[in-house]
UniProtKB/TrEMBL annotation:
InterPro entries: Glyco_trans_2-like, Nucleotide-diphossugar_trans, Trfase_2_rSAM/seldom_assoc. One of its GO terms (cellular component) is plasma membrane. It comes from Denitromonas halophila. Its main location: membrane. Keywords: Cell membrane, Glycosyltransferase, Membrane, Transferase. This is Glycosyltransferase. Signal peptide: none annotated.
């Protein structure tokens, strides 16, 4: 089989309720030569059984997006990588846009829109996009993509339970600012809606500020609600 032109790496954990819907629109891309890798962090709800038949590789890794994404990158066949969250959907012509961007820059991300009825979600997404353009820092919700050469050059994602996308962006900026694509990925607003939009906004601002001031990612993860990973 020909080497894929792009590998999509999708970290998951207990996504059985929606994994089929997540992977369905990616089947067309697989038919076009895109590799789809699902990296499970120890699901107990049958996620892997549902994902395995409709992806190119379904592997396990220690829980945590950074660990899982690094594991996916390690087995990926392509020289270009796209890290996609399970609750994020790609826009039309996303792959062509990624390839065009990576022809001239080592990494990049999309603008984002947050799917949900609350009017504040549009403002949150707009602020995320503006902040990212201004600072050169991408978030995982924005579907980060990168050349393998650049990914290997910085050593991949730091294996930390939170803010791995910020740490990654900081190191990548040494190689060049990101390609900030105006095409928008759509990410689910469930995090904001479940915990309260305003409460989540304040919490995320506080977490980012604390991280910038040197707080340890493990402590921030506990504040965010992540249980410690068992070794």
């Amino acid at each position: 089989m020909p080497t894929p032109t792009l590998s999509i790496i999708l970290p998951v954990l207990n996504e059985a309720a929606g994994i089929t819907e997540v992977l369905a629109p990616l089947q067309t891309l697989r038919a076009e030569g895109i590799e789809l890798i699902v990296v499970d962090g120890g699901s107990t709800d049958g996620t892997t059984g549902l994902a395995t038949p409709v992806c190119d590789q379904c592997i396990g890794a220690p829980r945590g997006r950074a660990s899982q994404m690094n594991a996916g990158a390690a087995v990926a066949q392509a020289d270009r990588l796209l890290f996609l969250h399970a609750d994020t959907r790609l826009p039309a012509q996303a792959i062509a846009a990624i390839h065009a961007a990576l022809d001239t820059q080592p990494w990049g991300r999309f603008d984002v829109v947050i799917d949900g009825p609350h009017p504040m979600l549009k403002i949150v997404a707009t602020m995320m996009n503006w902040r990212s353009r201004l600072t050169g820092i991408a978030t995982g919700d924005q579907a980060i993509f990168v050349t393998r050469k650049a990914f290997n050059q910085i050593g991949g994602f730091a294996d930390q339970p939170l803010m791995e996308d910020i740490a990654f962006s900081r190191r990548m900026k040494a190689l060049g600012r990101p390609a900030c694509l105006h095409q928008r990925v759509t990410t689910a607003g469930r995090r904001w809606e479940t915990h309260g939009v305003f409460r989540t906004i304040v919490l995320m601002w506080w977490l980012r500020a604390a991280y910038a001031l040197g707080a340890h990612p493990d402590d921030l993860a506990k504040r965010y609600g992540y249980a410690p990973r068992q070794s």
